[in-house]
Design goal:
Blueprint lengths: L5 H6 L1 E6 L1 H19 L4 E7 L3 H8 L7 E12 L2 E10 L9 E9 L3 H11 L5 E9 L12 E5 L5 E2 L15 E4 L6
The chain binds inosinic acid and magnesium ion.
Length: about 190
């Protein structure tokens, strides 16, 4: 995608769905949730790149119990607008996760197929426990049964950008979550 100007880039943001302030508030709750469960336990926060990089950076700073942080990258293959569940791990964890309580820090659960596959792969490695914290959840779109242990925001079925989430690799740097306006360009 090529934009002629910042004005054109910004014009495709239909509206702000979740503001910076709302995100900050929920991050505090999520930090407390992790603190309350994992004090005194070896915990590894695992973010799935790229979408969850902003969420991980902000969430980690709300966590006060000792924790390690790591990243994985996965490529989900799409069939039209839906992920297929065919997932390739393009960057794996270095740790032996059998020594950790693992918390997956995810950007969004849509059909659930990507995370379903990833969880299956990670369970085989026998972590001490395995939980999921997601920034966003679109339950209306779910195809496989999957529930996060903590979801910060539940949204209806529209395409969102910002705060790490992209459209065509753009918009990840917006500090808020917005709806992408398909009428302005695809
Ligand atoms: P799932 O396998 O259908 O749950 O899709 C998960 C992945 O699709 C997410 O990790 C995102 O990368 C992408 N995705 C799904 N919905 C959105 C959206 O509204 N905005 C941006 N990316 C999305
Ligand atoms: Mg993702």
């Amino acid at each position: 995608m090529i934009f002629d100007s910042k004005e054109e880039y910004m014009s495709r943001i239909r509206r702000v769905v979740i503001s910076e302030e709302e995100i900050k508030q929920k991050l505090k709750e999520a930090g407390k949730f992790i603190d309350s469960i994992y004090d005194g336990k070896p915990v590894l926060l695992v973010s799935i790149l790229k979408g969850a990089f902003v969420f991980m950076a902000d969430l980690a700073r709300e966590v006060t119990v000792p924790c390690e942080i790591s990243f994985m990258a996965a490529k989900s293959y799409f069939e039209g607008t839906e992920s297929s569940g065919n997932v390739e791990i393009t960057m794996d964890l270095k740790q032996d996760i059998s020594k950790y309580h693992v918390v997956i820090v995810e950007d969004i659960i849509d059909t659930g197929r990507t995370l379903h596959t990833l969880l299956k792969i990670l369970k085989v490695r026998e972590p001490l426990s395995l939980h999921v914290v997601t920034l966003l959840d679109k339950p209306d779109r779910r195809v496989v049964e999957l529930k996060a242990d903590l979801s910060l925001f539940t949204i209806p079925d529209y395409f969102v950008i910002g705060y790490g989430l992209d459209y065509g690799e753009y918009y990840r740097s917006l500090p808020y979550i917005a709806e992408y306006d398909y009428e302005k360009g695809e």
